[in-house]
Design goal:
By secondary structure, this protein is an alpha+beta fold. It has helices spanning 7-17, 28-35, 49-58, 64-72, 90-99, 104-112, 114-127, 153-164, 195-210, 247-251, 268-271, 273-280, 338-355, and strands at 2-5, 38-39, 77-80, 83-86, 167-173, 176-181, 212-213, 232-236, 242-245, 260-262, 302-306, 309-319, 324-332, 358-360. It is globular.
């Protein structure tokens, strides 16, 4: 079967898959499970990305302390590859962990530092959880790169051991991550899956969360944006090429009920910029890495979703010392109607209340 979809239908499938309809999900674990991944980018111009992503789905009941408890105490959530994930997905990642590290440079470096690796694992077992700074650099061969990891041997080894599944991230605080041996963080007796079965299930879950995706997309380091042959084929009017669509998303189209939402720049609905342009006709670029004079929308502008369309960007910053959410601008891609402006202003107020701040500027 090949589905023929309008862009509006494709957008609605995508928005629904990301739990951004009017009906909100029930809880944090259910949300992470349905989204499959939640980005951990810690930049807190407004709030860390994971908190923004979860607040945009759950609303005011969400509190960051609840996520911390689920991650550090209940172990219902774990961190791998820069994302929070539901612990029930761990078995799906084990085959990939066994293939890591993937680069020849990393494999050779680990082999050359086998004594260092064994010493670090023994130290974690005896003293963990530990920070990278707690582990003396006893590398036999230093890690060489042109980036910030050059000669940071303890951190580089821990990163590799997390990706391999021998070490896990036990907790986070203002000073960074604490690492421990995996068996003290991950559950025992996980189901054993073949590499093909795990990859297929991950792709199926990814398609359900995205709603609609390409069979093949730009390669990503840890979490793909494509889904292979999972789902059913679809053509989107006015967009070249074939898509893969979640049949459950197609079946639920008639019940779509949208709302207004402020999204993290790292939200999966906007992460794939090509898909964002093709389906939503929305131009967006995170400008925190640009000089201030070259920014169009702001340092950490939040995409504004209204129903099944992106309609603008919110340029704001949380000034916690002053107790205010400073709204520098609400950029309208097209002039807002009175109803849309009221809806956006209400969402800004909700964001500020959740942060415990007062709004200063547009939307106040």
């Amino acid at each position: 079967m090949v589905h023929r979809l309008t862009r509006e239908q494709a957008r609605r499938i995508a928005v629904s898959g990301q739990l951004l309809q009017a009906a909100r999900p029930a809880g944090i674990v259910e949300t992470i499970d349905a989204l499959t991944v939640v980005n951990i980018e810690p930049t807190a111009a407004i709030a860390p990305s994971a908190d923004l992503i979860l607040w945009s789905r759950l609303g005011w009941p969400y509190q960051p302390s609840d996520l911390v408890r689920l991650f550090e105490e209940d172990r219902a959530v774990f961190e791998w590859g820069g994302f929070y994930r539901a612990m029930t997905d761990l078995a799906l990642l084990i085959p990939e962990m066994r293939r890591r590290p993937q680069s020849a440079q990393a494999r050779d470096w680990l082999a050359a530092n086998d004594v260092f690796r064994r010493e670090v694992l023994a130290r974690l077992r005896a003293e963990g959880p530990l920070r990278a700074a707690d582990i003396p650099d006893a590398a036999q061969v230093s890690w060489r790169s042109s980036g910030w990891t050059n000669n940071r041997n303890s951190m580089q080894l821990l990163e590799m051991l997390v990706l391999c599944g021998d070490v896990a991230i036990s907790s986070r605080d203002a000073a960074g991550r604490l690492f421990d041996i995996a068996e003290r963080v991950y559950p025992a007796d996980l189901p054993s899956l073949t590499e093909d079965a795990a990859a297929r299930e991950r792709a199926a879950r990814r398609l359900a969360s995205l709603g609609i995706a390409r069979a093949k997309g730009v390669a990503q380091a840890f979490e793909p944006i494509d889904v292979g042959e999972i789902g059913e084929e679809a053509i989107v009017d006015g967009v070249d090429g074939l898509w893969r669509v979640d049949p459950d998303g197609v079946a639920a189209l008639d019940g779509f009920a949208g709302r207004t939402a402020l999204l993290s720049p790292f939200d999966r609905l906007v992460f794939d910029r090509r898909r964002l342009e093709e389906l939503f006709g929305y131009e967006y670029l995170l400008e925190m890495y640009k000089p201030a004079a070259k920014r169009r929308w702001g340092y950490f502008a939040l995409p504004i979703l209204h129903g099944d369309r992106f309609i603008g960007k919110l340029d704001a910053k949380a000034d916690r010392k002053a107790g205010v959410l400073r709204v520098h601008a609400v950029h309208e891609d097209e002039p807002f109607t009175d109803r849309i402006r009221e809806s956006v202003d209400a969402e800004i107020q909700d964001l500020a209340r959740w942060l415990g701040l007062d709004v200063v500027g547009p939307g106040a």
